[in-house]
Write a structure and sequence with these properties.
It contains 11 helices and 11 strands. With about 350 residues, it is α/β, with parallel strands linked by helices. It comes from Acinetobacter bouvetii DSM 14964 = CIP 107468. This is PNPLA domain-containing protein.
């Protein structure tokens, strides 16, 4: 009796902008084409991409050594910082292990959360800050937000009054957020700099060094009301700096790419800012993403995970999920992510991307 083997559904969803689709149809997806890689904010969702990061940075990109921009906000910047500082294999694995075992509990005060976050960041960077600043191939670009007016304060009344104003203003237009915060793009000196065309947000271009890069990474992931704004950053203008995802959640920026923007992402869509999540109409600008190839876990893959989705910050306090269960489920999600990397590398080998690509 002949057995019919059922093929497992694809683990990846591939979407691409118009120019990227044309380039891939003409020449396939080659490492030599990739000059920019964005990394979204999204907390522990980032460790759900561990296997994909290992494949892209450990096996695909080394096929063509060149200087590339790694542009991240919040956990996206932390993911890339680990890769640049600790290497293409140890970096993703270290981030996943540290996040999985983060000793967070619901009654923690802001100062305690800041302490364990800095300890986690220290583990991600190790003693390799010089490598991070001077890496010959990877140009880490950290996105943060410079708070303005009352939003600079961590006092509960001022902070939550600011957040209410931000939510209301954003409901009218995303551009109104510029009354509350400004974008910061921070990167190493002595290399060609990442720049964007001017938009509604005032953008500060600053440089990090071995002495302040940890503070800039901390600022990029400082969620209002969860961790305090980062102040008194060495060699930086005075100010209160917060999570880069507030403005640039999924990095919908006008990339000046000359090739392909390869985007390993936990979602198959791009939401411009954190406060835009509640508005279905707030989607990526097609012109910004014309050269983007967005690679994300497929719905079938997500449903196969222990929680039916990627790890999420709410899992730390999810009713009915204790720390031991969370750790086990997150470990399983990270282990399963090898499927993402394997499938990506198989597609690179076969160069069959055109049959899977959907419009972005």
């Amino acid at each position: 009796m002949t057995q019919i083997l059922q093929k497992r559904p694809p683990a990846l969803t591939i979407r691409a902008g118009a120019t990227a689709r044309q380039l891939i149809e003409q020449a396939g997806l080659q490492a030599s084409q990739v000059d920019m890689i964005p990394g979204a904010a999204g907390g522990p969702k980032g460790i759900g991409l561990t296997g994909l990061d290992l494949a892209i940075f450990g096996e695909f990109l080394p096929q063509s050594k060149q200087r590339r921009f790694l542009i991240g906000s919040s956990v996206g910047a932390w993911r890339f910082a680990g890769i640049v500082a600790q290497g293409e294999k140890l970096g993703p694995e270290q981030l996943a292990d540290l996040y999985i075992h983060l000793p967070f509990h619901q009654k923690m005060k802001i100062a305690e959360i800041e302490k364990i976050s800095r300890e986690m960041l220290s583990g991600i960077l190790g003693s390799q800050t010089q490598q991070l600043v001077e890496h010959p191939d990877y140009h880490l670009t950290i996105i943060a937000a410079k708070a303005e007016h009352l939003f600079q304060s961590d006092q509960r009344l001022a902070l939550y009054s600011s957040l209410l104003g931000i939510i209301g203003s954003n409901a009218l237009s995303r551009n109104h957020l510029n009354k509350f915060m400004q974008r910061v793009i921070c990167q190493p000196e002595h290399f060609p700099q990442f720049k964007i065309q001017q938009d509604a947000f005032k953008t500060h271009y600053l440089n990090f060094n071995q002495h302040n890069v940890a503070d800039w990474l901390m600022a990029s992931g400082s969620i209002p009301g969860v961790t305090p704004a980062v102040k008194n950053i060495a060699d930086a203008p005075q100010g209160a700096y917060r999570d880069g995802g507030l403005i640039d959640y999924h990095i919908d920026l006008p990339f000046e790419s000359q090739g392909i923007v390869l985007y390993p992402h936990f979602s198959d869509s791009i939401i411009p800012g954190w406060f835009d999540k509640m508005f279905k109409s707030r989607t990526a600008n097609p012109e910004n993403q014309a050269r983007t190839v967005l690679i994300s876990p497929s719905p079938d893959y997500l449903q196969s995970l222990p929680l039916g989705r990627l790890p999420d910050r709410k899992d730390f306090v999810l009713k009915g999920l204790d720390a031991e269960q969370r750790i086990q489920m997150w470990k399983q999600s990270v282990a399963e992510s090898q499927r993402l990397g394997d499938e990506f590398l198989e597609m690179v080998e076969k160069q069959n991307f055109p049959q899977f690509i959907q419009p972005l």
